[in-house]
Automatic annotation (TrEMBL):
Pfam families, per database record: Rep_fac-A_3
Nucleus is among the record's keywords: yes
Protein name: Predicted protein
Statement: the UniProt record of this protein carries the keyword ATP-binding: no
PANTHER family: REPLICATION FACTOR A PROTEIN 3, REPLICATION PROTEIN A 14 KDA SUBUNIT A-RELATED
Recorded GO CC terms: nuclear lumen
Keyword set, alphabetical order: Nucleus
Xref: InterPro entries: NA-bd_OB-fold, Rfa2
Molecular function via GO: DNA binding
Family statement drawn from the similarity comment of this UniProt entry: Belongs to the replication factor A protein 3 family.
Amino acid sequence: MDSDASFRSAIVNGETLKMFVGQRVRTVLKVQHTQGGLLVGQSTDGHQLTIRGATEGLMSNYLEVIGIADNDQSITAESSKDFGEDFDADVFNGLCKLVVNGKVKEVVL
């Protein structure tokens, strides 16, 4: 099945976000606080990220964000989903490493 390339997103953590500036990305972060329309959270590998336009996100819950990487610390959200308090950050970071190191040729979500 051929998926539309416009809906593909790179799976990133805080460290690998810089490799995809200007592109659609998918990440998970732990919400720290919201401030003036921005959501601030900690990536699964410990980097602080700012999300513009996230519509969900309870304090200290994990949030999946899909959007465009503005720079190495910021994403403009197209969609977001609350994953709750229980999320395995180590597994997600492992997936990010596999994707970036070319162990997985293509992950379309």
